Each structure stands twice: as C-alpha cells, then as structure tokens.
Amino acid sequence: MRALYTAATGMAAQELNVQVISNNIANMRTTGYKKQTAAFQDLIYDHVRRVGAQASDQGTIIPVGVDIGGGVKTVGTPRLMTQGTLSATGGDLDIAVRGEGFFKIQMTDGTFTYTRDGSFTTDSQGRIVTSAGNPVQPTITVPSASSGLTINAQGQVSVTVPGSTTPTVLGQIGLTRFINKAGLQPIGDNLFTDTPASGAPQDGVANADGFGDMQQRNLEQANVEVVSEISDLIAAQRAYEMNAKVISAADQMLQSTSAMFR
Questions:
Q1: R_g over Cα of the chain
Q2: What is the pLDDT of residues 220-243, one digit of tens each?
Q3: Is 260 helix (H, G, I), strand (E, B) or coil?
Q4: I want to staple 175 with a disulfide (CB 3.0 to 4.6 A). Which of 47, 211, 216, 218 is the partner?
C-alpha cells in the first residue's frame, strides 16, 4: 500500500528535523553559532489523471487531475545567519563582530577558515590565536611585557610597552565577508570554509563597507531562541506521531482486506 511508504518518508523527514533542532538546542551556548532549519520538498507525483488533458473528442479539458504524491524529502539544512546578541565578558581578547564579517583564521596546513567566534587568546609566541592555536589573520604578535591591550571598532590592536605612555599599534585584525553566507561549509570547532555556493571570500576592514565593527570584551552569542526551538520540537513530534498513525491505519486496512479473502 502506497500510504505505508509515503508516511515512512514523513517519519524520516521529521526524525531529521528533530536532529537539526536538537543540534540547535545543544549549541544554544556556543559562541557565534548560527541556527539551522530543515527544508523539505514534496516528492514526484503519480499522475493518475492529468489536469489539462483532453477529455473527449469534442475538446473538453480535464479541469482537475488526480495526482498521488510520494511523500517528502529533505533538500537542505540552511543556516540562519542573523546577528546574535552580544555578551560582555571583560576579556581583553574577546571580540564580537556586529555586522556581516567573519574572522579569518589560518590553519596548520596553510588554508583559511572563517569564524564568528571571537574568543581569542595568545600562544607561546604572543600571537593572537583561536582556542585551537590557529592564528587570526593578519597575524599580530603581542609583546610579553606590554599592558593595556585595546582593540577598537576598526580592529586595530594597541598596547602600551614599557618606557612609553603612548599606545603602540601592533596591527589590525581583518574581516571577511561572502555574497552568500548560507553557502559556507561548517567543519566544526566554530569554523566554516568557503564553497562555490558561498562565493569567493572578500577581505576587508571592520567598520567600513558593511563589514561590521568589532566590540572588544564582548562575545556574540548563538542566535538560537529556546522558546522557538521547543515549539518547533513539539510540532515535529506531532508530525512524526501523525505519520506513525497513518502507517498504523494503513496496516489495519491491509489486515481488513486480507480477512475478506480468508
């Protein structure tokens, strides 16, 4: 019976939907996390009676067809790239981006990745790095004896070195943006890589040309709204239950049909 397979596709789709929602909830406290949603499409139809076909030799047209759908399929889990709220941390190397840009990170193999997680630190060489030790681009080294580290809205990093009262500019942290941010590929550790869908990375400076500005001593929180996720979870559970009931009803109908021939 076709209903069994159709309902099964619905159950599989809602199972994936719950997986996406659970990942959003699990990352509700992940810095810079961008929530995902599950996108679905209906499957191809069996056209039992085609709408618009000629119904008679006199030229009458079938006004309403008979099309039996095959169920549902998952076509994507796009990310919602909206701005997350900023949370004050007090850390000198905690930076939030307010706008479009991503921090550019150089990996150990020389490739570049991108992140909205601005919880940086310094390594043994004094370089500003991620929690995994990968340097932020352009590479900036903070002298060990310096103090009063400040990062302005443009990403300029300044410190006060011994023997001087005038802040010294060490460099400027850059930002990168993409034409289609939803086309970035997540690779874990709060990192993304560019893809043909995202478009080529466009490097620039903060607080100019729409890249967004930097807020020192702040971190961007995940853009997950718990109440919305819970309501989506309940809706997915109900949809799953309804599909299970369809399978049960179809099974009972098959049993009734079999009993007629005993």
A1: 27
A2: 999 999 999 999 999 999 999 999
A3: helix
A4: 211
Under a CB-based contact definition with an 8 Å cutoff, are residues 93 and 128 in contact?
yes
Condensed to tens digits (0 to 9), the pLDDT of residues 70-116 reads: 999 999 999 999 999 999 999 999 999 999 999 999 999 999 999 99
Q: Nearest-CA neighbor of 173 among 212, 142, 206?
A: 206
Q: Quickly list DSSP for 34-89.
A: --B--EEEE--EEEEE-TT-B-STT--B-SS-EEEE--EEEEE--B--PPPPEEE-
Q: How far apart are CA 190 and CA 175, in angstroms?
A: 16
Within 178-238, strands assigned E span 185-188, 191-193, 202-204, 213-216, 218-220
Quickly tell me which residue has 């020192």 as its tokens.
216
Cα 196 to Cα 105: distance, rounded to the nearest angstrom: 19
Q: How far apart are CA 217 and CA 85, in angstroms?
A: 14
Residue whose entry in the numeric block shows the structure tokens 């990170």? 105
